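User: Sequence recovery, please. Input:
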């Protein structure tokens, strides 16, 4: 199976680390005792030191490599220790080495691959599942033996049958792509049932891309789409990511028809970005049906409260005064999105109530909706609500409150707030009803909106 494999050059790592440690020790010897560090890291073992150790001690070091990260000294030392112990014929060390290889997916350097394969095969035949998987990998990659995908698949299936999860994923890949086995989608999906969700998702994607690109000798886009769709059931956003790659050809293959299918699948399952993609494409059409579907997709996208662009678009469509049927759909979409917490939808719905578009005009509801958006930090809502407090439209007139809201909108960068704030705080060149004590000036409703 074509997988990403990490190669560990342990001899160089250990030798260079030893030289660095020796240089550091020499430098420390020259320094005054008073300047010695409070904690001294032990120098890593040299290859010669490891070879001089007992097998028992090597095994203790080897076990650390199972849990250590690959870029740590514990891993490098532990893997080298396990290699040395295994080369002495210790069966426990060979099994430990197989576990390290399986868990970290490493290709060993500085070992006799043919001898290692024989030792691993010996342990595999005695029931060590990690050894079974290690032998499968060696046949898959041609390490110590000729590449033989059929034998690799047989060994993967063996390890899968005894419950090794990684082997189950490999078996699924083999059945899904036909690498060493006859293609069988049902069998591939069956093996993935026993795999954790993260590995299941990644394996489905690997199978899908292998079939889309033909990297295993078979190109089958229809089958690839089924595996992609199965991955999207686990995470809807995956379908949209794949679709974008297929649409742009970033993976080496461009297929706009397949991309369109995946975008629709992702959108229908609630992916906000995919729904926006569908809506934008339909909004370019001139017929009424396209516009109706575009509104429905924008409404679905706006249910994601972080998708402010969808809320803005619905609001903008409302200002164009479309046909009554579309107005009803837009109002419904804005209402659901506003309930979901989309602040741009709150502003759009406030505009509808301010102007009586698709709903009965209500300054009070307008103010309530703007207040909810302002409480979420929306600068435009603060600006519009500030005008309403200045004029007393839908709320009790309160110049102090109006100035607070307008100041906050200005600090947030809303462009009209500075001008409006000046009119509230600076005396006008000519007299006004407000300045002469005859009550607050009434701001035209169109301005408040």
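Assistant: Recovered sequence (449 residues):
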């Amino acid at each position: 199976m074509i997988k990403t494999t990490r190669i560990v050059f342990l001899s160089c790592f250990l030798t260079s680390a030893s030289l660095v440690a020796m240089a550091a020790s020499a430098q420390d010897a020259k320094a005054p005792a008073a300047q010695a560090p409070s904690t001294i890291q032990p120098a890593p073992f040299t290859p010669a030191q490891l070879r001089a150790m007992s097998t028992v001690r090597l095994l203790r070091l080897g076990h650390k490599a199972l849990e250590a990260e690959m870029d740590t000294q514990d891993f490098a030392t532990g893997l080298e220790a396990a290699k040395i112990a295994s080369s002495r014929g210790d069966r426990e060390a060979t099994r430990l080495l197989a576990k390290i290889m399986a868990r970290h997916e490493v290709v060993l350097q500085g070992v006799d691959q043919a001898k290692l394969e024989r030792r691993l095969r010996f342990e595999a035949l005695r029931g060590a599942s990690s050894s079974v998987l290690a032998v499968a990998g060696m046949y898959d990659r041609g390490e110590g033996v000729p590449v033989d995908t059929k034998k690799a698949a047989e060994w993967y299936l063996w390890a899968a049958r005894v419950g090794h999860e990684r082997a189950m994923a490999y078996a699924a890949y083999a059945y899904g792509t036909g690498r060493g086995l006859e293609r069988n989608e049902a069998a591939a999906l069956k093996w993935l049932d026993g795999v954790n969700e993260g590995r299941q998702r990644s394996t489905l994607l690997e199978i899908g891309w292998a079939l889309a690109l033909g990297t295993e000798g078979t190109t089958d886009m229809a089958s690839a789409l089924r595996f992609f769709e199965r991955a999207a059931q686990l995470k809807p956003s995956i379908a949209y990511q794949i679709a974008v790659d297929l649409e742009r050809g970033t993976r080496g293959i461009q297929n706009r028809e397949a991309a369109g299918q995946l975008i629709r699948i992702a959108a229908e399952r609630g992916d906000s970005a995919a729904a926006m993609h569908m809506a934008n494409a339909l909004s370019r059409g001139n017929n009424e049906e396209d516009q109706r579907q575009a509104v429905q997709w924008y409404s679905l996208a706006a249910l994601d409260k972080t998708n402010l662009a969808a809320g803005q678009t619905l609001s903008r469509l409302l200002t164009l005064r479309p046909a009554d049927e579309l107005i009803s759909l837009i109002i419904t979409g804005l209402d659901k999105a506003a309930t979901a917490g989309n602040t741009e939808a709150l502003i759009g719905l406030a505009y509808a109530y301010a102007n009586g578009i698709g709903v009965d005009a209500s300054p009070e509801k307008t103010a309530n909706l703007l207040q909810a958006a302002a409480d979420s930090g929306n600068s435009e809502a603060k600006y519009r609500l500030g005008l309403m407090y200045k004029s007393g439209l839908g709320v009790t007139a309160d110049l102090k409150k109006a100035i607070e809201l307008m100041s906050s909108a200005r600090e947030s960068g809303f462009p009209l707030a500075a001008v409006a704030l000046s009119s509230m705080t600076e005396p006008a060149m000519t007299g006004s009803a407000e300045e002469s004590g005859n009550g607050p000036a009434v701001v035209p409703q169109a301005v408040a909106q």
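The radius of gyration is 34 Å.
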